[in-house]
Amino acid sequence: MNVLNSLAQASYRLLAAMRQPGRGTSWLVGILLVVTLAMSAANLLLPADSPFYVSTYTITLMGKYLCFAMLAMAVDIVWGYCGILSLGHGAFFALGGYGMGMYLMRQIGDRGVYGNPNLPDFMVFLNWQELPWYWFGMDQFWFAIFMALLVPGTLAFVFGWLAFRSRVTGVYFSIMTQALTYALMLAFFRNEMGFGGNNGLTDFKDILGFDLQADATRVALLLVTTFLVVVTFLVSRTIVQSRLGRVIVAVRDAEARTRFLGYRTEHYKVWLFVYSALIAAVAGMLYVPQVGIINPGEFSPLNSIEVVVWVAVGGRGTLYGAIVGALLVNYAKTRFTALMPDAWLFALGALFVIVTVYLPRGLAGLFGRVIELVHRRPGRGKEQTTRDDGLSVAEVGA
Amino acid sequence: MNPINHFAGQARELMRRDTTWPFLVTRRRPVDVSKNIILYLEELNVSFDGFKALNNLNLYVNDGELRCLIGANGAGKTTLMDVITGKTACDSGSAWFGQNIDLLAHDEAEIAGLGIGRKFQKPTVFEAHTVFGNLELSLKGYRGVWRALTARLSGTERDRIEEVLSVIGLEDVRYQLAGALSHGQKQWLEIGMLLAAEPRLLLVDEPVAGMTAEETERTAELLTSLAGKHTVIVVEHDMEFVRSIARTVTVLHQGSVLAEGTMDQVQNNRDVIEVYLGEDA
Description:
The structure holds two protein chains of two kinds. By secondary structure, chain A is an all-alpha fold. In chain A, 69% of the residues lie in helices and 2% in strands. In chain A, the strands form two sheets. A two-stranded antiparallel ribbon of chain A has the order 1-4. In chain A, strands 2-3 form a two-stranded antiparallel sheet. Chain B has one domain: P-loop containing nucleotide triphosphate hydrolases (Rossmann fold, 3-Layer(aba) Sandwich). In chain B, strands 6-7-8-3-9-10 form a six-stranded mixed sheet, sandwiched between helices. In chain B, strands 2-1-4-5 form a four-stranded antiparallel sheet, with helices on one face. The N and C termini of chain B lie far apart (66 Å).
């Protein structure tokens, strides 16, 4: 009874959060839900020759973008709100992905090329006789999910604890995160690691008994991804609006002041970092079944830097900005790489420069400025409260 | 024989019945000022790459006192504050807060929790938060991560914030962003943030730097009104300001105390005239 009650309350609070007036960001949640639902319906219900039919390819692409949006949100929480520029979030994303990948590998069973019911193909190929200990239990969905959260979470905790306790900040921290993801990439490239080496994990057949190639599974994955993006968005927004969030912004702006007020800033940073890593891991878990492969390339330092560009374009310190930035830049990337494959990196670089020089607050800042111009009323003056992101409207307009 | 004696001595220490074992003593406890002295600094030495920032410094501050520290640049005023607040470790010496708290055994956050507040030389406030929000974050209370997640402002806390707002005279701008305040207002806000934490000892570094004459006067009033209830240590360069608030002045020179007394005594002190005021004249 009690559980039911609290569940009802939680769902009520969720609904209330989504309806919260004047925040504007709820629009984004609404649009996301409507668009993905419409796409799903168009894919499943309409015949393939209908002009409104949405191909399964597009569905999967959208799912992939949303995973990236989640990853961008994770980076935005630590970078935009706490000023910790992590250039290694791809590592947590990939670790989450590997967790899911291991589960999917075990689901292949004897349908692999070598037909071995216990060992994944790459192990048979390497002449391994039995499953390494760390693969045990990964055929259970719940255990795989648990491990896919535990490993990145623990890594983030240990790494963050060591770094923040020693007061490593700024560019030094960024470089260390780059080194972290690079080291993991090199490790996962090794065949002896037992994660498929260079080729990674691929050739998945089904998830929880559903065929991964089926349209309905693809649509379901997209919907689950959307749902989780919305949930993490709302949870993160609750966190950044709480006193905890305000302390975090305080740490970003004046860490010494916060410390001399009695806050253990390193604790705040570590927990935020772990939270962010967990979101990145969830994004990775959702990414792998939709894309169908996970390999050490996901650990590449470049990937993590790209995430930072998405956040910068969308506007850091605004959760919705990260989502918008990730969706837009990735859409542009898909388009661009189809038209001029060689020009994409130049375009990305140019985008970053333009945003840094002309839009330091990103698209969200631009949006905020427009809103402010439209809503400016005489006599309101500078009497402004902080916005939900902790950045001032005045600052955005400046 | 010697090691046995040593061991026996340790065992005897462990069996003492007039004190509890050190690890059983709670780290957060009220400061004991029964001897009416709140800060004992003895034989403090700090050196940076051979430069002696503090040199056998001895300083005692009475409870409820308003003490001014003056001294030329490099005299060790800010280093002294760094040592008291746990930012800088000292090479030797002792620093006790009241009778019972060894400041050298605590870090910055713990020292702040013990009731020592510090205002920086450059006014440092949370610019992205409102004045009210700044004070809210500074309120006395638990500083843990999980508690911050669920913290709600209670009625008493709200009243406390209003009280501090009226003390520092920023009621009219309470919902303004701290980043939009004037320099003087930021200084006051920072003092207000210290007050919201209800400290026993306030360390105020250059409170009137960059203030107009009128603002300086108001700050002087504010600081003198705080003394008594709190102990205040002010570091300042502005001699007029020091004269207007100080009862006791300590002059630092090259990391140690050169003279101590009322403003007049200090100004007529031969050493002081020679090394500090003499240069000004």
